[in-house]
Amino acid sequence: MKRAEDRRSPTAVLHCICAQFVNLVHSLLLQWYHRRVQDPPLYAFIPIALFFAGAVIVPVGLLLVARALSRRVYGDAKSMAYECGVDPVGEATERFSVRFYLVAILFLIFDVETVFLLPWAILFDRLALVGFIEMVTFIAILIVGYAYAWRRGALAWV
């Protein structure tokens, strides 16, 4: 009779095998690296090259395994465009107004620029008055740009 530990799911078995493989590779790399510490500096880049090779091989391998194991059932319902559960209306090649793209680009610009507020907030104590004046200037430029886009009607949907 099989015990409960023997009846693992295939995902758990695959996870266990992958974890053992990663531990084995890690220990082999550590042993190899410690033997090569006295060698020329070029050997220091081999673990980085192996990391990048693994970063390419693992996703490609997982995609190939998923493609080999997946079911391929095609039909009319699967070929139809999905729009939140509602049957699509109109042509797929319908043109959108340039305003949608303009609003998206403006959102990205202002969103990316506001990301610079986080490092400033973290280093606020060390930047003192000069950092405060620089950030006030930065925020003033953002506000002027936002007001300009709003006045020109770039943020209007209709």
Description of the molecule:
Helices cover 66% and strands 0% of the residues. The protein folds into two domains: 71 residues, no CATH class; 57 residues, NADH:ubiquinone/plastoquinone oxidoreductase, chain 3 (Methane Monooxygenase Hydroxylase, Chain G, domain 1). It is mainly alpha-helical and 158 residues long.
**What order do the helices and strands follow?**
HHHHHH
Number of strands: 0
> Segments where pLDDT lies below 50 for 5+ residues?
none
Overall 3D geometry? flat
Oligomeric form:
single chain
Give the biggest sheet: none
**Strand portion:** under 5%
Number of helices: 6
Distance between the termini: 70 Å
Mean pLDDT across every amino acid position = 79
> What's the structural domain tally?
2
Helix fraction by DSSP (H/I, runs of at least 4): 55-70%
Structural class: mainly alpha
Radius of gyration over all CA atoms, rounded: 28 Å
